[in-house]
Amino acid sequence: MNPEVALPILIPLFSGALSLLFWRLRSMQRLVAVAGTAALLITSLWLLASVSRDGIQVMHMGNWPAPFGISLVADLLGAIMVVLTGIIGFAVALFSLATVGRGHEAFGYFPLMHLLLAGVAGAFLTGDIFNLYVWFEVMLVASFALLILGSEKAQMEGAIKYVALNLLSSVIFLSAVGLLYGLVGTLNMADIAQRLGQLEEGGLVDVLAMMFMVAFGIKAAAFPLFFWLPASYHTPPVAVSALFAGLLTKVGVYALYRVFTLIFNQSPDYTHEILLWGAGLTMLTGVLGAAAQFEFRRILSFHIVSQIGYMILGLALFTPLALVGGVFYIMHHIIVKTNLFLVSGFVHRLKGSYQLKKLGGLYKSHPWLAVLFLIPAFSLAGLPPLSGFFAKFVVIRAGLEAEAYGVTFVALLVGLLTLYSMVKIWAEAFWKAAPEDAEPAPEAPSQREQWLLYLPIVGLALCTLAIGLYGAPIYALAEASAAQLMDPGRYIEAVLGTEVTP
Amino acid sequence: MILPWIPLLALLGVVVPLLTRQRGRRFCSLATAAPAILALLLVFSQVPALLAGDLPRFQLAWVPQLGLDLAFRLDGLSLLFVSLILGIGLLILLYAHYYLEAHEPFARFYSFLMLFMLSMVGIVMADNLLLLWLFWELTSLSSFLLIGFWSHWTDARKGARMALTVTGAGGLALLAGLLLLGDMAGSFDLGVVLESREAILADPRYPLMLVLVLLGAFTKSAQFPFHFWLPHAMAAPTPVSAYLHSATMVKAGIFLMARLHPAIAGSEAWELIVTLTGMATLLYGAWFALLKTDLKAILAFSTVSHLGLITVLLGIGSPLAILAALFHILNHATFKAALFMSAGIIDHETGTRELGRLGGLRRAMPVTALLTSLTAAAMAGVPLFNGFLSKEMFFAEAAASPLLGGLSWLLPVLATLGGILSVAYSLRLVHAVFFKPARKAPPKSPHEPPRLMRAPVELLAALCVLVGLLPVIAEVPLGLAVEAVLLTPLEFHLAIWHGLNLPLLMSVIALIAGVLLYALHAHLRQFGRQFSPMDARLIFEGAVQRLMTWSERLTVRLENGSLQRYMSWLLGAALLLGAIGLLQLPSLAGARPTQEADGILLLGAALMIFGALGTVATHRYRLISLLMLSVVGLVVSLTFARFSAPDLALTQLSVEVVTMILLMLALFFLPQKTPRESSAGRNIRDLGLAASLGMVVASLNYAVLTRDNHGISDFFIANSVPGGGGHNVVNVILVDFRGFDTLGEITVLALAGLAIFKLLNRLRLFMPHSDGEGRVWSPDRYPLILTSVSQALLPLALLVSAFIFLRGHNLPGGGFIAGLITAVALILVYMARGVEWTQQRLDFQYQPVAIAGVAIATLTGLGSWLFGRPFLTSAFGHFHIPAIGDIELATAMLFDLGVYLAVVGATLMILANLGKLTTPHRPSKEEKH
């Protein structure tokens, strides 16, 4: 018995149901939000500990042996992703206590947050391709409901684009799963990988790989499939933006990593070459999009896109070092990007706006907030000794070693433009004096709320610093996880070969 | 180990001012200086070891997998630089203590200054290429904060951004270069790299690496054409300019070239690029130093020029050239820092830095005048000052260099030209500020600064003279530094007099011509004015602006807000990638033979095609379109039945009914006809896209279906009864084999219900009273027949759904279908009687029903943990119940109950909320007014 494999899914599911039952009890909902996400974080660490100690953990749902039932599989990448889900969930839950107003809470913010986390954790842990689809749907519906929280016009417009484009992704994904099932007659990913290895239908498999690439590429917001993201991420309450920014696209990236290391690894010259182009264009279009923006959250949203490019680059180069870089990048990015959104939310509470034009003077009035912005911002731009430095560094080194000079140049250039973008925010919101005609924020946070706002921001900033300063163990973790990805045999053996738990 | 303490003390210096801020500026300044003084003493304590030929090193693994170690060394080169950094840093601190205004956040300033000191110390002491780069970036960052210290001032913000962007770009190039370098040498350890010269020079990637590394060095050291950020960085407070932009940071690039000299220098490419860049910088900087009128701008351009001079020497690369380069680094740091501080004093005491408003200050500030004259003389290279010595060595090396072959005479000529300009601008600086009468009075009436504010300048000026008179004292540190660069000791002797030779002649020419040039410089400025003034910042910002506009245009093109556009991008990508793949298939059809198509199949296919086309064709008439769509759904359901999947057929049928009803409810609020929105061209585009995508998917389907697979389905059929306790394989799959999927799906359903509840909750809709043609809706809202039929049907339908539910495990049916049937029955009642009537009688919330469903399913799964089994393990058994008889009960049925409840709850939640929109229960539009 290894309940820690299923608990990261079941705890948020249960917390979600619980807070739905206490629909009217605000205090109870808030309590469940903190306790539930804390429990998620703890079990996820438990899971990571057992995966790093005992290797890949598998749980066969319903005690049906693989490939007949659904298996939950936690390899290092999955476990790492779940830990990140826990961290972000907990941080955002804390932040929500002070930012999500009574009105939004009444419309089920907290239960939706839990269910979203359940979907995310499910996607990271499942070893079954159709089950992955199911968790994608849970995520999609939950995130849609979160997006329309408040039902403002801008939100509706963003949410409709969000849901329409993501449903398209679901359709493509589902068709691809169906076709794949038609080809190999199984849904368990380890089994698919094994059977595809024996199949002599390379060309057909490549076409299916492309369908998965498009479906997951939409989820991951890669070029030219990212449009839903900048259309919607800046519209909902900031805690929701932060949650999305940290986790949602990364599920798509995770799925790409899973599928293109485990299943579609037969013709990397073809599939991964396309990924490489996608990575380069994603980095570039994202960062150029950000350069044209003057709204705090829109800038950050476009940077998500460009950073996704780096992660895909790690996968596309498909060398051990590149995968280390990719995994490292994902870890770093989730923490940093969520934190930046949280900071933007804090700024919004203080100044009542996300428009850079209307901001200013925070360097003087809130120097610590300024420092707390600089840490994730410079980390995002890849400055040492913060987490982003190592992430970017490894990816670039992998690019140079693979002699992919073109895309490495793009990666470096995008790093520079990212820096420029962050400096733009810094100069406008922090350095510049507040504009004369600035209106006071409608609801400046109370002292107690400030603490609640600072707490997650400080926590995540410390994570960023720790990943940078205490890099060796994190790197070792990423390295071990990349080694597992490069050797899908271990995954297949763990799922299909081991004895079914009695 | 002493070495790590040097950077650690500097790090301490970053924190100390923030902690001691409360105790007053004097205490804070002293407390900040203490760690730096200690660090300097520690550095000096290592000198005996160095003289004995040791190389103090320290190493601590950081991220060993990447080759990144916390490794420090203190060789001669490091010693020279680290003493410079700490020593001048301390002087700057003293100076800043007086320079900053009372209200300014001095602690923050000190902290940034110390952060910068830390990063510089790190650069020059790093024994690992990656560590070096790390500190390199830290200098960019700390200088960014320092330049922008007066952040309320636009120039400061812009200057800071520009400096960061340019040095940041160089930093990234350098990173790539160092990565390549480390790869060539096989290690990032400096010791290894410095000894791998052959391997590096022979590597085919050498030119690329060289260019990248030099890009880093040139941007940092403000070499032409990357020099433009430096004059604008002068928006910083003067202590910063004196420290960063004359003595230390801009020397980092020079340091890097010296540091890597043993490993990468000596190739023809190096000599050409470095020497020529240096020469261009030397002349360009000197020329503009002569034209500028802002005191700090003059000094900035002269710094650019001197950096060029050092670069030329490093490019020439002979042992004596290296010596001259290092010597000039030392000399330049002393006289230029002093000059900057003098400029700061003048600015501080007079309130202006414009030459036009200064003049005749020798009366008000005699000591400052003297100090400035001395240091300016050193800058000009006047004999008996330190600058003279290194400049003469420069002339000698320029004359001796064989570079450029037959044109090698060009080098000494250009060097002399640089010397002439340098004399001229130095002279101008002193003359215009102190001697020439002022044209306009300065804003403040000038007087001497506080005694201690001048002290650093006095000390540096004394050093200039001392070294100029007694060059011997510089021999020891220079000897150590040269040895570190050349890797072998060099015999040399510094002397003032070398006899009558070519360099001396060049010096003399420079001095005389320089004075003449200054005398003529009014004409020169006239000449200079003919060129339109080139403000680097405007150009830079213009470039940035262009990039912005360009990216904005691109973004608007890509992301124009149109969902149709996004959809077509997505579908286009899918089409392209799919089609490319299909093109490469050798043949579409697989080995499995196709079934004979009979009439019924063909009819079904034709119906489906008709339905699909009809949906599209009638899309402007929503109701008809919807009916067409339902044709497709029904034929799908028939297809399932035809291929022996009664469960699926039943499910599809009920789903079809429920969705149709819900859609119709939604359609009620929409106009019945939509206007024609798309142009013909767009229609054709969309048609093409849809058709080709359909063809790709159909081809894929065909390809897959004509291939055999040996799937896992046999297992399900074999294990359904013995393992799952049910004869209906589909249901056993749903609730047992793949129950986890079902759990997820009912969660989705419950979520969808919630989402719609939220979506509709605040919606205020216009309620139409008539249909599209203007016919009023029938006043008979609840027709009698429907009412009575539905009422009679309800118990029957509930009975049927109970039956379907119970038999589900063995025969077609199950919780999902049963739930849908119940929902349909209730929907009928709603429609027949209206929301109000029904809700009075069915007085409960649907939301808890749906949640209870999900909770029951989850808890059923968790139950198996109590027995030590994995989640969702089912159990079943046969029980004998009196009066009913033998009955089989399975935990899967409990799970199925959860499914049933979730389906009923979610469906009715959606319906009730849609229905509620039509009732006066909700505050409607009219009521609000």
From TrEMBL, chain A:
<dbReference type="GO" id="GO:0008137">
    <property type="term" value="F:NADH dehydrogenase (ubiquinone) activity"/>
</dbReference>
<feature type="transmembrane region" description="Helical">
    <location>
        <begin position="107"/>
        <end position="126"/>
    </location>
</feature>
<feature type="transmembrane region" description="Helical">
    <location>
        <begin position="204"/>
        <end position="226"/>
    </location>
</feature>
<dbReference type="InterPro" id="IPR003918">
    <property type="entry name" value="NADH_UbQ_OxRdtase"/>
</dbReference>
<keyword id="KW-1133">Transmembrane helix</keyword>
<comment type="similarity">
    <text>Belongs to the CPA3 antiporters (TC 2.A.63) subunit D family.</text>
</comment>
<dbReference type="GO" id="GO:0005886">
    <property type="term" value="C:plasma membrane"/>
</dbReference>
<keyword id="KW-0472">Membrane</keyword>
<dbReference type="GO" id="GO:0042773">
    <property type="term" value="P:ATP synthesis coupled electron transport"/>
</dbReference>
<feature type="transmembrane region" description="Helical">
    <location>
        <begin position="451"/>
        <end position="478"/>
    </location>
</feature>
<dbReference type="InterPro" id="IPR050586">
    <property type="entry name" value="CPA3_Na-H_Antiporter_D"/>
</dbReference>
<feature type="transmembrane region" description="Helical">
    <location>
        <begin position="308"/>
        <end position="331"/>
    </location>
</feature>
<dbReference type="InterPro" id="IPR001750">
    <property type="entry name" value="ND/Mrp_TM"/>
</dbReference>
<feature type="domain" description="NADH:quinone oxidoreductase/Mrp antiporter transmembrane">
    <location>
        <begin position="128"/>
        <end position="414"/>
    </location>
</feature>
<keyword id="KW-0812">Transmembrane</keyword>
<feature type="transmembrane region" description="Helical">
    <location>
        <begin position="277"/>
        <end position="296"/>
    </location>
</feature>
<feature type="transmembrane region" description="Helical">
    <location>
        <begin position="30"/>
        <end position="49"/>
    </location>
</feature>
<feature type="transmembrane region" description="Helical">
    <location>
        <begin position="132"/>
        <end position="150"/>
    </location>
</feature>
<feature type="transmembrane region" description="Helical">
    <location>
        <begin position="368"/>
        <end position="390"/>
    </location>
</feature>
<dbReference type="Pfam" id="PF00361">
    <property type="entry name" value="Proton_antipo_M"/>
</dbReference>
<protein>
    <submittedName>
        <fullName>Cation:proton antiporter</fullName>
    </submittedName>
</protein>
<feature type="transmembrane region" description="Helical">
    <location>
        <begin position="69"/>
        <end position="95"/>
    </location>
</feature>
TrEMBL record, chain B:
<dbReference type="Pfam" id="PF04039">
    <property type="entry name" value="MnhB"/>
</dbReference>
<feature type="transmembrane region" description="Helical">
    <location>
        <begin position="297"/>
        <end position="316"/>
    </location>
</feature>
<dbReference type="Pfam" id="PF00361">
    <property type="entry name" value="Proton_antipo_M"/>
</dbReference>
<feature type="domain" description="NADH-Ubiquinone oxidoreductase (complex I) chain 5 N-terminal">
    <location>
        <begin position="65"/>
        <end position="110"/>
    </location>
</feature>
<feature type="transmembrane region" description="Helical">
    <location>
        <begin position="131"/>
        <end position="150"/>
    </location>
</feature>
<keyword id="KW-0812">Transmembrane</keyword>
<feature type="transmembrane region" description="Helical">
    <location>
        <begin position="455"/>
        <end position="474"/>
    </location>
</feature>
<dbReference type="InterPro" id="IPR007182">
    <property type="entry name" value="MnhB"/>
</dbReference>
<keyword id="KW-1003">Cell membrane</keyword>
<feature type="transmembrane region" description="Helical">
    <location>
        <begin position="782"/>
        <end position="805"/>
    </location>
</feature>
<feature type="transmembrane region" description="Helical">
    <location>
        <begin position="107"/>
        <end position="125"/>
    </location>
</feature>
<dbReference type="Pfam" id="PF13244">
    <property type="entry name" value="MbhD"/>
</dbReference>
<feature type="transmembrane region" description="Helical">
    <location>
        <begin position="5"/>
        <end position="20"/>
    </location>
</feature>
<feature type="transmembrane region" description="Helical">
    <location>
        <begin position="597"/>
        <end position="616"/>
    </location>
</feature>
<feature type="transmembrane region" description="Helical">
    <location>
        <begin position="242"/>
        <end position="260"/>
    </location>
</feature>
<dbReference type="InterPro" id="IPR046806">
    <property type="entry name" value="MrpA_C/MbhE"/>
</dbReference>
<feature type="transmembrane region" description="Helical">
    <location>
        <begin position="322"/>
        <end position="346"/>
    </location>
</feature>
<feature type="transmembrane region" description="Helical">
    <location>
        <begin position="566"/>
        <end position="585"/>
    </location>
</feature>
<feature type="transmembrane region" description="Helical">
    <location>
        <begin position="71"/>
        <end position="95"/>
    </location>
</feature>
<feature type="transmembrane region" description="Helical">
    <location>
        <begin position="897"/>
        <end position="915"/>
    </location>
</feature>
<keyword id="KW-1133">Transmembrane helix</keyword>
<dbReference type="GO" id="GO:0006811">
    <property type="term" value="P:monoatomic ion transport"/>
</dbReference>
